[in-house]
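Thread: Modeling a multi-component assembly for a lab meeting

Hi all, long-time lurker, first post. My supervisor asked me to bring a structural picture of a complex we are working on to next week's group meeting, and I have zero experience with this. I have the sequence lines for every component (951 residues in total). Could someone generate the structure of the whole assembly? Inputs are pasted exactly as I received them:
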Amino acid sequence: MANDDKILEQVTNNEYKYGFYTDIETDKAPKGLNEDIIRMISQKKNEPEWMLEFRLDSYRKWLKMEEPEWAHIYHKPIEYQDIHYYAAPKKKKNPKGLDEVDPELLDTFNKLGISLEEQKRLTGVAVDAVMDSVSVKTTFQDTLQKHGIIFCSFSEAVQNHPELVRKHLGSVVPNNDNYFAALNSAVFTDGSFVYIPKGVRCPVELSTYFRINAANTGQFERTLIVGDEQSYVSYLEGCTAPMRDENQLHAAIVEIVALKDAEVKYSTVQNWYPGNENGEGGIYNFVTKRGLAKGHNSKISWTQVETGSAITWKYPSCVLLGDNSVGEFYSVAVTNNRQQADTGTKMIHIGKNTKSTIISKGISAGYSENSYRGLVKMTKNAHNSRNFSQCDSLLLGDKCGAHTWPYIKAQNTSSVVEHEATTSKISDDQLFYCNQRGIDTENAIGLIVNGYAKEVLNKLPMEFAVEAQKLLSISLEGSVG
Amino acid sequence: METNTLDISLKDRMISLFEDKKDQIFKNDIKPVSALRNEAFEAFTKMGFPHTKMEKWRSTSLEETLAKDYNFRIEGAPRQTNVEKIFECEIPDFDTYMVAQLNGWYVYRKAPLRTLPNGTIVGSLAQAMQEYPELISKHYGKYADYNENGLTALNTAFAQDGIFIYVPDGVEVEKPLQMVNIIDSDENLFIQSRNLVIMGKNSKLTLLQCDDSVHHRYTFLNALTEVYVDENSTLDHYKLQNKDDSSTLINNVYLHQEANSNVTTNAITLNGGLIRNDTHVTLNGRNCTANVYGLYLVDREQHVDNHVFIDHATPDSYSNEQFKGILDDSSSAVFNGHILVRKDSQHTNAYQNNKNILLTDKATVDTQPFLEIYADDVKCSHGATVGQLDQQAMFYIRSRGISKENARMLLMYAFTAEVVNKISIENLRERIDDMVKKRLRGELSICDQCVLHCNHPEKELKFNIDMTKI
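Re: Modeling a multi-component assembly
Sure thing. I ran the full set together rather than chain by chain. Output:
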């Protein structure tokens, strides 16, 4: 046991390697939130009148709402007036090529391993880099344009494709959906916009990389993905933040609309700064993600690997409106030290013959709390619908917690809902088996955890799977007793 | 927080009632009970009735039932009557010690508190307060936390009588003890009833709680039972619920188990307007076993809500929850199982399972099997399913020449058998088995379900546990 403790200690001392920050000139709005700040953000982004109205409407709704308290998380009250709601790296206007992008910025992303340069094309991933809520650069534009795919920053989309944005903005996550969604709708500064035209299968993986850099800021970005009929897209999201002692708020919204026969696959590897071993600092990640499977036979798939952020409050959901539509949720959530995660999904079955699958794997270590919270709802008309949920928790250490809060609501006779969950630890038998075959304890644990998470990791696009696997072993290195 | 006006009015009525009738309410109290009453009243004043904005009451709304105009019977006392006259148990050859409550007050034939030959004390709680104050002050109100639930607070503040059972150390009560709670009133009634069961070390008891009601009046029974099970004791507990459709029953049971004790509790709901069973089990010693089972067969607009909270406060214990339900018409059911494994409660095994069959598109089920775990060396699992009968099994049976209707019946019967078979009293099991069969066959017409007997006015109005009447 003593040996195990030592290993555990090593892990807690494991440095967060993305914890640096770039000293770059930023353009910040004064601290605090009021209608003037919102007007200022809107003006800075040169937004049309309806966008400003949307923001102000959201703000007024937000004022009347209360911060949700039902999640199994604890944190000091957030001072909403003590945050800069706008921070942007100062940049030259509209960089045409990479030469015009601030070299400091490029350096930052290179350091993060997200190369915005030409050679990145070899890997075949188009990247939209967002720093402090502002899109820095989107690569691969030419190829995408050939197919008529729109992949750009949200601000550009508002300027260039206002009709598409206006049609879909808030159609999946209304601006009064919840407290953090309302806040985001009022102050969001940028994000990514994707439109895949009818019948197009997106030839490359689309990716957005989020980076919080400036201090005392909140990051509020917004992603909107529209898959037109018979289209397909696979979208990746990654994120990091510097190590700071204070907690930073990240309240984002992701909306996905899938029309008839469309398929959207959304993968996240979340690696925000989780705070130090005493639970100081780190990102509060309060995110609303929802997909609307609007057309018949559409499919939305969420895959997430959660290792970062001090607190995660996130429920990527699917509203299965079209007949025969499919929703999937695959998640691995790892918490260590004092991290807290309350994450899961909602599957709302409305159309006939809709199917959903939920596979959630929670791994908790140290003093962390890891909760799965999910809702499966079969409405009256969702005839012959099917759900299967499996939520497993793995406890590594006796000071952590693993919780499951599934909600099932069934309102018709022809649907079948199944939920299974288990909580366990790595058994001595398994370890003994590995040891006996010459695998040391630490590697054996890595092996077992990876095997445990494999079901989900397999769902990630190849480019991400390798990274995720590495991330998993770093987050948990030897933390097993 | 929003509260509707009707809630306020009933709440206010309760508050002024408490202040007006203080003398009556406190009349029989011993000191600790009075103190508890005042504290609980404070708590109720703050909390009020539960409402659907509360996590634990999301799916069960009391709004409608609280809006009814109720009367209260504060001025009463345990009274002498012929128990057999108001209640007749129709289970053949079912020999029990029977104790009864009528409209919340204890009724008896000979004495309000009697001592059985083996030393077991059974009788009125109000009387027990006078005769055994030390037992009462040691256990009363110690397991039911009034800060947690407005209805528990209300009960603690108002309840004056109920059933008291004390099984001394080393005593095995050979016959089942049958607690009957009958409501027979020609006016709408709001009743608080409070039971206290204390089991000494190495004791054994089988307890059967029957809830019945006569008359189609709106009644609200807020019953609370505290059970203390000391080391090495075994308790078999059954709840049979067979109430009319206009009644509301809140059944709060707080079970406190010490080391090596073994409790099995089984809630069988056959009929009832709105039924809420809250079972709290605290495993406060090593090697405890708690089996919590339930079966609900509901139809029309009935609503059954089973909340089970199992607190694994110490290591090495075992708990198992198994709830099954069949829902017909526009009925609705809620299951909320919450297993809490506290820090250092290692080697806990906890299982939870809820299975439901919906027979119509109007019936709804909400199921929430929660696990909250703070220890790592545990085995916990939970499962929940909602669906219809297994099509493959159906095909198998039908391919052997059994009609669709019979096949359906067979499968439903098999579905319920898992819970029914857990009943260890043979007579009772057979009776319930029979009941379930009849219920599933739909042999009982709507008119039979009515307790008014308007088809047979010549028949004397008599209510009994004969479950064919549901």
